[in-house]
Give the backbone structure.
Amino acid sequence: MTTAPLPPQEGAPDPGATPSKRRIGVYVCHCGGNISDYVDVEQVVAAVKADADVVVARDAMFTCSDATQQEIAQDIAEHQLDGMVVASCSPKLHTLTFRSVARRAGLNPYEYTQVNIREQCSWTHTDDHDGATRKALRLVRAGIAHTRLSEPLEPTAVETVPRVLVIGGGVAGMRAAVGLADLGLEVVLVEREPRLGGWVARLGTTYPHSADGGDLVLRLDREIRRREAITVLTGAELIAKSGTYGDYQVTIRTEAEPITFSVGQIIVTTGFDSYEPAAGEFGYGIPGVLTLPEFTSLLKEGDGPLTYEGRPVRTIAYIYCVGSRGEEHAYCSRFCCSAAVHSALLAADRGEEIRQYHLYRDLRTYGRNEAMLTESRRRGSLYLKFADDQPPSVSRDGDGLRVTVRDLLTAGEEVAIAADLLVLVTGMLARKNPELIGTLKLPIGRDGFFNEIHPKLRPVETVVDGVLIAGTCQAPKTVAESVASGLAAVTQAAAVLKRGVAELDPQVAVVNPSACTGCGVCVDACPFGAITLVGADGAAVETEPALRTAVIDVAGCKGCGGCAPVCTVDAIDLRGYTDAQVRAMIDGLLVGAAR
């Protein structure tokens, strides 16, 4: 790995320095009403026009639109702006967008400041428009103060390793491995089970193209074996990761011995777990009460008349949303409705005389799957809707089952169904994998699935540089959606690795060696191991504090800022968020504050 040089670390800004005259442009977004319905945007713009160093101040319906981006770029060129403030939504959404605008117009992208007046202002003060407007103005002035003390920064360039680690050997991971190899990248595919394929390998006919799940996995397996660039490790798990973005060292535990190698990107496709009902939940445990995966396995057996434990199946009832949309798992698993409808069609193929009753809270056979719902109705399936607070009840009825429900479609009439089988339409659960989460520092949502940065703008990227997510480890998905997200991760990883060079954020910590006392407190505070103590000759030493100085590895530093507050002599600063900038932002917030 090679790194481009950064300016000397001695150059930490002086908190007491007087800023030079700046030329700053300020742009305040209406966000289509998300902001302007509660904040008087025009009033904010009019107020900051007179502020020192503000050369241009405008409002826009959508600052992120192509048209407004072009206007901002034109302003930068015409007014020779050397700083920019955009007051709109969360920096998570559009920081990269406006950095790109700045770069295209010739402005250093790190002399731009994003101010969040949507999540932090308009959406939190919908009942106080005047207060929201005053707060928005103060937030914008804090952004201007931050920009006044900004300095041009350049990313650190690192050479990348043209190899990708794919963790998880389901269809998303298998298809991603094939796609990466076809782009000329080496791939290491790691699966903790003895075989590849995941859940799909257990499926029979899938929808909407009636492909056999086992056959699909076999075809992918053959494609993987044909490509020498792909190394498959089964019965294996990731146990350690070190290094930096573009050049990670990973250790894989195998049945033989641990293996360590370098990779440039990591794609996580570890799949999901299926909800397992508790004993007695909707009759689970009673003979004839099956989960959807169990029913799928039953349908996969043979092609004659459908039987269960030697008895013919004449009537099937389905209860939807089992394990989903409840107190414990509040989310919708998305695929379950379509999977149940598809299973009903497969059951109808085993005997047109089979009666089928679908008991649902809401029905979501989205997209082309709506055609399956229409076909199932045509073939005799009946759909009954129950209220959220009145779920069906299940009991034994001789050798069969009795399912009772109040149908909202018939004015709440109670319907009793004598069924041979009851299928509990179970959803997806986030797979528990604490070791992997701890090793990769993966972000997790409240639902337990891994979190992307943004579902539309950056759908497979995580906040961990170089670690991507795809498939059902991210959210409930169908097979087709899982494969699509796997290919999205392929394009994202390849876009970095095929260039051969990755850029690291220059907003890293810096040390003022003349102030550093060599105490080593910052070394213990750094979660990334990016700080070392060196002697006068630059070599790592263990000697008296007075003879050593802290040095930060710019490639290893993630800019978290955890080292700065623990430094007892204020010898550490964070580029882009220096002490001086933070103090100036506080002063800007206080302008116009109620006394």
